[in-house]
Write a structure and sequence with these properties.
Layout (H helix, E strand, L loop, with lengths): L2 E6 L10 H12 L4 E6 L16 E4 L2 E4 L1 H11 L10 H22 L4 H8 L2 H15 L3 H4 L3 H11 L1 H7 L12 H16 L10 H15 L9
Amino acid sequence: MAILLHELVGSDPQRPFSPHCWKVRLALRHKGLDFRTVPVPFTGVASIEGGSGIVPVLRDGETVVSDSFAIAEYLETAYPDAPSLFGGEGGRHLSRFVESWSQRTIHPFVSTSRALVSIHDSLAAPDRVYFRQSREKVFGKPLEAVIVGDEERLAEFGKKLNPLRSLLERQAFLGGDVPLFADYIVFGAFQWLRVVTPWQVLASDDPIADWFERCLDLHGGEGRQVPAAA
């Protein structure tokens, strides 16, 4: 039985955008595993098997796992002879740090930038209603008001990326000479932006941009299977 990956999509089922789903896509390719994707709209997440109420969800035979990091840990245990996602136990713990940093540095910027409205506009009608109501409840104002000033906030966001930038000036990947799950965590956040908006937040000569291009080429160009937003 093929591995199934339930991943979040908008009105176009061929354009998954969730950063967490992209982490798992690359993790599966890293392990050399074949899988089939199951597109899920926002309003369908609650009905995914396993009842976790989140995406991604992975089914491998009789095993169902939700949460991107838990899926990576499962793949590492279930397929120990395939290339490691963590490079050892220390790498697993460091990946937790990278996840925490990414979700507190990159994700807040993306989710309050023009990408927020772009995601809304990419959804089917029922999902647009859900997305707008749920996000406006969190922010306490219309989506269009949330994103005001994102261009001005970009410079400060760029400064927050300096630790990542400094590392990638010295090595090809966060994992060193080869990518690890830590790379896929950060890649997922930038792929989120790439898929939903044509807005360029990285200069072409930024070491992070070079790293991102390398990541897009990994595993037969898995990241490039979905074209950038136009």
